[in-house]
Amino acid sequence: MRSKGWVFTIIFIFFLYLSFSSLNSIARSKSQRPNTDIIIQRKNPYRRSNSTLLTSVLAHIQSGYVANRTPDFDTPPLLVLYSCRKANACGTFEERLLSMTTAYLFALVWDGAAFGIDMDAPTKFDWYYEMTLGYMSLNEGQVNFYLDKAEKEDPSSILDLDKMSAKELETTDFMTQYRSDNVKILRCGQWENWKALLNNPSVWRYRDKYQLQHLTPPEIFYIVHQILFRKPSHWLAGHLGPYLDLMGGEMYRDPIQKKPTPNESIWNRWMRIGIHMTSDSTQEEMDCVASRAATVCRSAQVMGKECHVFLSAPSQDIIQALQKSIQARSQKERPTIIHAVSESYEFTPASTMDEAGPVDPSDEQRVKLIYARSIMDWTILSRMDYLIGGYGDLYLKTAAAGAQVETGVFEYNKEGDCEVVPMEEWF
Q1: Residue 134: which pLDDT band, with cuts at 50, 70 and 90?
Q2: Which of 27, 50, 195, 388 is deepest in the core (most CB within 10 A)?
Q3: Whole-prediction pTM
């Protein structure tokens, strides 16, 4: 009987041990469970682009736009130049980007045509940006070579236009006309919207060759942006260095290459919001924009991301007022991190580019810095995950098209209150 009692005692102790071990295991598993209000979601919900289609179009252009359009000795069948060499002739910085887009497309849909940028009023374009692929556009030396050659041998082969209108772009059979008139070089500083050009039946063959007919206007801008003004020059990259993380951790990546895998790049760990305000912005509008930024930040933080906000404005006073308004709406336990280009860079609006004449080569370094802030701001904005600004702001629109992200614009509703709504009108 005693032996049986010991057996029962041992069995009972073993049962208690198993019970406590099981409860302890459950407690440990519960304590290791993550906080239920944090949901890890890496994908940016504000990205607009159909990346597969856009990559396909870029690949078609890369393979179809051949290098023999830039021969060493003979002028190409047509050299299309975005040309800006005098004051009050080319528009603001953002207007120039749109004109360059149309001019580049004009060359793209003309079999054998070459493209180049001939600009020195008030800056040279290659001071700030490099062409993604060298053979996709002539460099300054090639442009000058062809211009000098044509001016000496046949000045009548150069056609100078102040403006290329939408009506001309949509209705003129340029190939037939220019061949008949022996036009070899076309120089123009203002090119109207490329939608008219792509509606011209005479270019449909090459439009369709590159699949451009499948793209929306902002997507077409994105394509040209990737080729002409996505890659900062060595000089600009040096000034953008302190903002590299904000730009996604890389100064430039070939858009046809595979994107970095999750957890390896900042754009998977940060939500980057860009805000651009104009000089006439009111406190009510800044508060309106700040409220929207705070809402987007809270959503990002629930996804497990840090929220970073980049501020762009034509004065330090507006930047400080906007920063204060955002911080007042930021969660104390998860603060919003605010960025802006250093105060050491001059506040010169990009709109003033239109008023300045050609640059003196000896004044290059000073002039470069005059417009550095505006161009740095735009470049950073074009890398953001979400943008906010004013309705009709072309500077913001072009940055949004380059970034291919959803953009909120503030407007006043029927009750007279400011609210931020999705931007629907592009170019």
Answers
A1: low
A2: 388
A3: 0.87
